[in-house]
Amino acid sequence: MSSVRLTMAQALVRYLAAQQVRDEESGEWLQMFGGVFAIFGHGNVAGLGEALYQHRGQLPTYRAHNEQAMANAAIAYAKAHMRRRMMAVTTSIGPGATNLLTSAALAHVNRLPVLLLPGDIFVSRAPDPVLQQLEDFGDGTVSVNDCFRTVSRYFDRIVKPEQLLTALPRAMHVLTDAALCGPVTLALPQDVQTEAFDWPEAFFSPRVHSFRRLLPAQDDIAAAAQALRNAKRPVMVVGGGALYAQASEAVRNLAETHGIPVAETQAGKGTLSWQHRLQLGPAGVCGSTAANELLADADVVLAVGTRLQDFTTGSNALYAHARIVTLNVNGYDALKGGDIQVLADARLGLQALSSALGAWHADASWRTRAEQLAQAWRNTVDEITSRRELPAGTLPYDGEIIGAVQRSHTDSHRHDIVVCAAGTLPAELEKLWRTETPGGYHMEYGYSCMGYEIAGGLGVKMAKPERDVIVMLGDGSYLMLNSEIATSVMLGLKLIIVVLDNRGFGCINRLQQACGGAPFNNMLDDCLHGADGVPAIDFAAHARAMGAQAEHVRSIAELEQALVRARASTRTYLIAIDTDHRRTTEAGGSWWEVTVPEVSERDAVKAARRDYETAKQQQHPYPGKSHDA
Fold first, then answer.
1. For the purposes of burial, counting CB atoms within 10 Å of the CB of 28, is it exposed (0-12), middle (13-18) or buried (19 or more)?
2. Which strand (E) or helix (H) includes residue 33?
3. How many domains, the chain?
4. Residue pLDDT, tens place only, 486-529
5. Does residue 371 share a domain with residue 239?
6. Is the pLDDT assigned to residue 415 strictly greater than 90?
7. Are 66 and 22 within one domain?
8. Are 240 and 246 in contact (CB under 8 A)?
9. Mean pLDDT for the stretch of residues 319-346
10. Which domain holds residue 63?
11. Is the whole-model pTM more than 0.85?
């Protein structure tokens, strides 16, 4: 067997460059890894940095400005590719590595693939301790990278070069397996990165990865079909797993053939077009009146590719009268419904279920009611998002701004991608944003990570350079992480960024008061101030300082005009607008459990506690509950 002598780092990069995937739409063979984000330091510049330079023609390296941001961009890239393509991220040791921890948790929660390659301390321990090394007084093998063990789906520390022969195939298995998918961390000690080994040439042969679809067991399909045949009021709730399985057509077919209305989660939004007559809109805490009314009255809920997170289930209080049938490729998630589980790929599972149902159809009256409620909800969305003129002295709120951004679409912009993550906007966008195509709505709400938005928008643009990417975020998220505006300008990857400035953390301020608390430490006006008082932040000036074009607007009309200029620009364009933090979309929504103190001197807290205890009586105590269906 022929061999080639390479350093560990050179072998790693060469292996990554050889991984391929077949594009299901075009049939084209593509590299699995779209590139490597890198911020170099003494823990990776000499080893991995030299290897990346050698292979820069086959595997591009992108420089970012913040480690967490570049990992978020890599995760967004994978999400935009429906987990079929991904990126790697490398940092130095110490703070460069630990800056990745938030992103690793984000990828883990959202079941998204990213390969993390933090530098590590010397295995030889010759210069021990090195700069930035954390010393554990009771364990000499520990480094800060051990923190990644709990937020990685697979973790390994490469202490001898030849360990890559087993570690890399295992890493690829996790990154490409629908059930295991999540972050992989390979910690790379800096001395081992530079050590040479005689590698078998075959290890670097191109490897084409197929994304296997798990077939459902016939007994599981039969049980799920029987539960639906016994149902009179079924509802399907689709999550991100339906999108990743490219199951949009299967969802639409099951809905139409069998008269089952469809609700969606944050991750599943876009699976079924917003204008489909059986599209109820979002379920749960950020849900529509249509979806939540039918879910509260449903006798069977078919949960497809969803983690059944508390926002989807109304903290397990929403599906009061329903049996839960889960269809999920991940056994851990499938168990959450507690009733009937179908362990399968969403597309194959739905196709098999539809076949098993045959000519069965939900009650016509249920379908009629669903269609009427769905249309009424679309009318509500129209009314909210069409407002242009506001009373003098009234600031717009998120819903009205969403309407203006949506109106900026033309036929050539039908495939825009909106990106968001945290604060008030996720609720408003899930309710009000109209999505026609799978992938047109990119929300990170599994981890709800403030600061994801701009970096995530960059990753989406890298994945879909032909589409306009619109990043919507609040001032709080912008201030947490905005540095990748400079990266987008540097890479020539244009983003349209709309900053809604409500001068603080408006979402949590409202939650604070809903729990009986006094406004405190959330809005800038409610914080302790120094001699100069509340800062006046000019977001447009800040963005211009990083190379973007930017402007501040004062009304919906000005926003619409600015969006025309932003569309025409060839460079990242930021628009800032002041908003009212007190107004939100009142329609829709459901209870969400946030605990309230049992004891307080405040009457408002006591009242909120009474309401909380009343609401908890509707909560299902545990999965596998008995039902009155």
1. exposed
2. strand 33-38
3. 3
4. 999 999 999 999 999 999 999 999 999 999 999 999 999 999 88
5. yes
6. no
7. yes
8. no
9. 92
10. 3-209
11. yes
